[in-house]
Amino acid sequence: MSRTELTHYDALIYVMVMASAVDSAMSDTEMARIGHITRSLPVFEGFDEDSLTQIAHDCAEIVSGQEGMDIVLEIIRDTLPKKLYDTAYALAVEIMSVDQVIRTEEIRLLQLLRDRLQLDKLTCAAIERGAIARYRAA
C-alpha cells in the first residue's frame, strides 16, 4: 500500500470493492456506482476522487492474499467509527443491488460484515428492504 494512515473513506471503499468483487465479477456498472457514490454521498465530502483507483487496487491486493477477506473486514471494523458501521453495510447492499441479483457469495459477505460490525438484524433487514425498493423494476 502506498499510504500508511487509512481513513473512513478507505474503509468504505474497501466495503464497496469487496461487495463488487465477492462474486468474482466486478462489473462496469458496479464500478460506475462506486464512483457515483464517492461523488455524491455526504460521507465522502472532502474525498480526493483521484485516489479511488489506488484505494480499490490496495483492497483487491489484500483480498487476493491468504485470509484476505478476514483481513479487510478487520481493517474496515478497526478504521471506521462505530457510527458509520450501518453506512458501510448500506454501501455493500447498494453495490450488490446494482445488478438486481444477489448471489450466495454476496449474502455470505453481508453476514460476515454484519457479524464483524455487530449490527443488529433489524437494522440490516431495513437496509436490505430499502435497496429492494430502490432497484425494483416496474
User: Helical content, roughly?
Assistant: 55-70%
Q: Please state the structural category.
A: mainly alpha
Distinct helical segment count: 7
Largest sheet: none
The 3D shape can be described as globular
Instruction: Write the element-wise H/E pattern from the N-terminal end onward.
Output: HHHHHHH
Commentary on this structure:
The chain has seven helices and no strands. The termini are far apart. The protein has 138 residues and is mainly alpha-helical. Helix 3 packs across helix 4 (68-79) and helix 5 packs antiparallel against helix 6 (104-116). The mean pLDDT is 89.
Report a brief summary of the structure.
This protein is mostly helical and 138 residues long. The protein has helices at 8-21, 28-40, 52-63, 68-79, 85-97, 104-116, 121-135.
